[in-house]
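Exercise 7. Given the components listed, write out the predicted structure of the assembled complex. Treat all entries as one system.
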Amino acid sequence: MSDQLYQDRIVALAKAKTGAGKLESPTKSARRDNPLCGDRVTVDIRLDGQGKIAEIAHQVRGCLLCQASASALSSIAVGRDAAGIADIRHDAERAVGRETGEAREPFAAFAPVAAHKSRQECVLLPFEALKDALS
Amino acid sequence: MSFNVQAVRGQFPILSEIIDGRPVHYLDNGASAQTPLAVLDAVRTYETTGRANVLRGVHRLAERATDAYENARAEVAAFLGVGPMEIVFTGGCTAAINLVAYSYGSLLKPGDRILLSELEHHSNIVPWQMLRARAGIEIDMVPVTVDGRIDLEKLPGLLTPRTKLISLAHVSNVTGAVVDVGAVVAAARSVGAKVMLDGAQKAPHGPIDLPALGVDFYVFAGHKAYGPNGIGVLWARPELLDAMPPFMGGGSMIGRVTFAETTWAPPPRRFEAGTPPIGPAIGLGAACKWMRALDWTGAHAHEMTMVQHLMDGLQKIDGARIFGPAGLQNRYPVVSFMLDGVHPHDVAQTLDSFGVAVRAGHHCAQPLMDRFDLDGTTRVSMAPYNDGSDIDALLTGVRHAAKTLR
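Answer.
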């Protein structure tokens, strides 16, 4: 049932707003729009000398799922490079049922989204923006 | 006698469905309306007793199909108060606008101008941008007032001798505001421009007297007007249709074909290349007949009572704001609102858990959202078969979203 979608853990991730905002001098920035629903995510990153994320910030104009995902992603992105981010994307894909296997935290919280195919892109949009920023 | 909502509801089988233990509170009519038995029966009758191609065969089924198809054209024409041969069946409302943009557009010259408004659906923006890229026309835009109406005071200042067409939504799919057609037509005539109305959100609310409106083109969608998917309507003045070249080539739209030369059939067949959507057209004919039989004075009063009920209820919810006209005058029952601190998609998703279907997002009107710096709105779009219980269920869901999601 849809009323189970907004479970406390997802709402808490969104409200935490981890990484919400802008970086003063980002190494790279990228914006992604979902043309179907209009959700929009901008990600700023500062990279260290090894191509790993030293700092991350995001601005989300989108739904609670998108905000929660951006918040979760920001909470574990620092210290990872493009391959490391691709690795944790599998957790998001597993949580929403697009890949088999168990999702690790914090993305395990998104398991209720598996039953709502039309909302899965909301969870993945921050990953798309971050991928662009890292490319 | 008051409007009998129950009698109307009884004609729509889906409204008595129970889904996941909840009744259907369908308030997404602006996206697609539900279909009455009269339409379902008409399509079934065609498919089971008269299915064949039209205009070609001499056998009895082909004659039945052709009769039913042309009767549907006559029903649509009666709904609009025009002649049957002025009705072109298309694949939808978008297809109808594209037909005009391509065909009428091919008669325009570089530097000619088309005037749109800031609240148009993308389907009344993008085809003109494509024409601009193809033919070098220019696009002007009438702004929108803070209450979501096309600002007609700005219209005269935007007209030029090069303005050839004003194309506007008859009723906004976001705010429900109806445009003052008389003012638009008068302004257009002052520079010799034509007027097209996108009637996608107007046609579902009863018959339209096109001769009285005085416009030149009118389009609407079947599926928003209680008909099937895959069918739309273009009406244009006969002299315009006569002057317009075909949009697509193929069977049915020709006079005579040789490898040296092909001549065109007269309208409307000139614009109906290939096998048309016969069953959907027959269904739309039945929908127009059904709408003509409805008491629209009563239905409109009923719809406006629901709008008032909705507005009163939203006013009592902290942070709920209407986007669009605040009153009941010059509007139709399409109401957009925002809930501070909760994204429209999350409002809509919560409403779904209460059995309430609405639309949320940009409503294919991104320029309007940009103008007001909105992420989107939650849109409640009503039909005569809705009732107070639908609005009550919606308000309960909005209160729940306000309580749990911010």
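Discussion: The longest strand of chain B covers residues 163-169. Residues 264 and 359 of chain B are 42 Å apart (CA to CA).
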